[in-house]
Amino acid sequence: MSRMNRISVVIIAKKAQETISYTLKSLINQSRRPDEIIVVIPNAKDQTLDVVKQFMASQQHLNLLKINIVIEGVSFRESRYVSAQNMGIDVSTGYIIVFIDADACAHS
Prior knowledge:
Elements: E1 7-12, H1 20-28, E2 36-42, H2 48-58, E3 66-72, H3 78-91, E4 96-101
Parallel strand pairs: 1-2, 1-4, 2-3
């Protein structure tokens, strides 16, 4: 697949342990799945990272789906949100980059 057709989704997941799996499920259930999902976890102090890893393990049959996890080790403030988005952009391989909140549902 050419880069022009690739879709990357970036999720900033701060304190998202309760909602992130719902968001990830809604993304993989799209008629046109993203080619990669990038989860940026700023200053992971809750179980968000564990939930994402567990989700990844349960979805190994989706060969086309790649989930990158970026952990930002500094404290997260409003001014750091853009920094977290930029980290997601830096590791993305898609031509189209979509941002979605960790508590959002992507409707097909």
